[in-house]
Specification:
Blueprint lengths: L3 E4 L9 H16 L3 E6 L9 H14 L5 E4 L4 H13 L3 E4 L3 H13 L15 H9 L5 E4 L7 E5 L3 E5 L8 E3 L8 H10 L4 E5 L3 H13 L6 E5 L2 E2 L7 H5 L2 H6 L4 H10 L12 H6 L11 E2 L2 H12 L4 H4 L9 H7 L9 H9 L9 H15 L7 H13 L4 H12 L7 H4 L2
The structure holds glutamic acid (GLU).
Length: 429
C-alpha cells in the first residue's frame, strides 16, 4: 500500500505557522515512507475562498521546499459529493432537519439548564409528513444531518495520542449540508480521503472530535479507515494560542530574513522528544521524523529560538546555496569570510560594502594616526599575498612596540571603518 498524506487548507486566508507545521509533517511523513503528498484546497465556501490565497498557499509551500505531488480542489468535485450524498440518503444515513439557528440555540440552553450535555435531540427524525409539508409551505428549507450509529463504539489508535474511544450517543449528529445546499467541511473531506486513497490523516488535535464522526462516515461508505495522527497544538512562549501566531506566516518570516531551512528545522522538531538543531539538510530531518516522538503537550514556538537557529543555519549555507542572493561579483572566498559574522542574510551587503568601499572615516588619536601611517608605509612595501596580515602585524609589533588590542584595533578600524568584523587574517589576501 502506497502511503499518501494530504494537507487541506481552506484558501480563505494566508497560511500561518500552525498550518505550515501541519503541511510540513504531512510532507515529511510521505517523504520518509516513499509516499505521496497531496495539496487539497478546501474551497467549498465560494464566498470566502479567494484565488489570491490559493496562489499564496502554493508559493509559500514552494518557498519552504514542501512540494506537493498532486493538487485537488473541492470546488471541482460537487457532482461527486452529490452522488455520494444520494447513497447515504438511500441508506438512511442522512436526514433533513428544519430547526432554525434560534430554535437550536434554545434547545441547547434548555438542556444545559437541566444539567444535560447539549446533544442534538434528533427531533427532526420524529417529524410527520404533515409537519414537514407545513414547514415547506412556510418557505423553510432543510439542512441535512449525518445520522451517527449509536450502537457501534468509535475507536482508533492515534499515532500521536494512542488509543481513542468515543461513544457516538454522546455526540450530536453533525450538520453536513446547509439550507442553501452548500457543504460543510465534514462529508466532502471524508469523500476525498476515500477517493484520493489517503492512508494517513495528519492534523491538529482540534480535529479529534471530527475524526470520531468521520470514522463513522468511512464506515457508512464501507471504505478503509485511514490512520490518524493528531498533533498537539502550537502555542507561543506565553503558553497560549496567541493571535500573533495565528497571523504569523511566510511573509513575516521573509521580512525578518528568516531562511526557509530555519523554519523547517524548528517546526520539524518542536513538540517532539528530539532536540531542535541547526540542520539545513531536510533529508536529515526526515530520517528522524517519527510520530512516536511527538508529545501530548503543546509545542512552543519561540521567536528568539527561531532567530538563533536562523543564524546557525546561515553559517552552514554553502556559496552555491546563496550565490543568487549575494551582491554582484561577490566571490565564494568573500562569502566564506563574511558568513561567520552574519546574524541573517540581510547583513551580507553591509559587509560587502566594507570590502568594496567607501567606508566610514573614523576619528583617531594623534598616536593612532601616526601608527596607521606607519602601517600604510609598511604595507606599501609588501607584496599582496596569503600571509600579508601576519607579516604586517609582526613587523608593526616590532617597530611600534604595540601588541594586542592597541596593535590590531586601529588597523581594523582604518581598513573597515568598524571595530568588529571578520577575521582580518582571512580578509587580507
Ligand atoms: N480544511 C480543513 C481545515 O483547514 C482540513 C482539516 C483536515 O485536515 O481534514 O481545518
Amino acid at each position: 500500500m502506497k502511503i499518501k498524506t494530504r494537507f487541506a487548507p481552506s484558501p480563505t486566508g494566508h497560511l500561518h505557522v500552525g498550518n505550515i507545521r501541519t503541511a510540513l509533517h504531512n510532507w515529511m511523513f510521505a517523504q520518509k515512507n516513499g509516499g505521496a503528498f497531496l495539496l487539497r484546497l478546501d474551497d467549498t465556501d465560494a464566498e470566502r475562498s479567494k484565488e489570491e490565497y490559493v496562489d499564496a498557499i502554493r508559493a509559500d509551500l514552494a518557498w519552504l521546499g514542501i512540494n506537493p505531488d498532486s493538487e485537488e480542489r473541492q470546488s471541482a468535485r460537487f457532482d461527486r459529493y452529490q452522488a455520494r450524498f444520494e447513497e447515504l440518503k438511500a441508506a438512511g444515513r442522512v436526514y433533513p432537519a428544519y430547526e432554525t439557528a434560534q430554535e437550536l440555540d434554545l434547545k441547547r440552553k434548555i438542556q444545559l439548564g437541566r444539567g444535560k450535555p447539549p446533544i442534538y435531540d434528533r427531533g427532526a427524525l420524529n417529524l410527520t409528513a404533515d409537519q414537514i409539508a407545513a414547514f415547506e409551505a412556510e418557505g423553510r428549507t432543510s439542512h441535512w444531518r449525518f445520522k451517527l450509529d449509536h450502537e457501534t463504539p468509535i475507536e482508533w489508535t492515534d499515532l500521536v495520542r494512542g488509543d481513542q474511544h468515543f461513544d457516538a450517543a454522546l455526540l450530536s449528529d453533525p450538520v453536513i449540508r446547509r439550507e442553501d445546499g452548500s457543504w460543510l467541511y465534514m462529508l466532502p473531506s471524508t469523500i476525498d480521503d476515500i477517493d484520493m486513497a489517503i492512508t494517513h490523516v495528519v492534523r491538529g488535535e482540534d480535529h479529534v472530535a471530527n475524526t470520531a464522526v468521520q470514522i463513522q462516515m468511512f464506515q457508512a461508505f464501507g471504505a478503509d479507515i485511514p490512520q490518524f495522527a493528531h498533533e498537539a497544538l502550537l502555542v507561543g512562549t506565553e503558553g497560549k494560542l496567541s493571535k500573533r501566531l495565528g497571523s504569523l506566516g511566510v511573509s513575516g518570516f521573509r521580512e525578518r530574513h528568516i531562511e526557509p531551512q530555519a523554519i523547517v528545522a524548528l517546526l520539524a522538531r518542536i513538540g517532539t522528544s528530539d532536540p531542535v538543531e541547526p540542520i539545513a539538510d531536510v533529508a536529515k530531518l526526515i530520517e528522524t521524523f517519527d510520530f512516536g516522538r511527538f508529545g501530548r503537550a503543546p509545542a512552543r514556538f519561540d521567536d528568539a529560538e527561531l532567530a538563533q537557529l536562523n543564524q546557525k543555519i546561515v553559517h552552514l549555507l554553502d556559496y552555491d546555496d546563496v550565490k543568487d542572493r549575494l551582491p554582484e561579483a561577490m566571490p565564494a572566498e568573500a562569502w566564506e569570510v563574511i558568513r561567520p559574522n552574519l546574524h541573517d542574510m540581510s547583513e551580507v551587503s553591509q559587509w560587502w560594502q566594507v570590502v568594496t568601499g567607501p567606508i566610514a572615516k573614523l576619528e583617531f588619536s594623534a598616536e593612532d594616526q601616526e601608527f596607521i601611517g606607519q602601517a600604510r608605509n609598511a604595507m606599501e612595501e609588501m607584496e599582496a599575498s596569503e600571509g600579508i596580515w601576519k607579516k604586517l602585524t609582526e613587523a608593526l609589533k616590532e617597530s611600534s612596540g604595540r601588541k594586542g588590542k592597541p596593535l590590531f584595533m586601529p588597523l581594523r578600524q582604518a581598513l573597515t571603518g568598524l571595530d568588529h568584523g571578520p577575521d582580518m587574517g582571512l580578509c587580507c589576501r
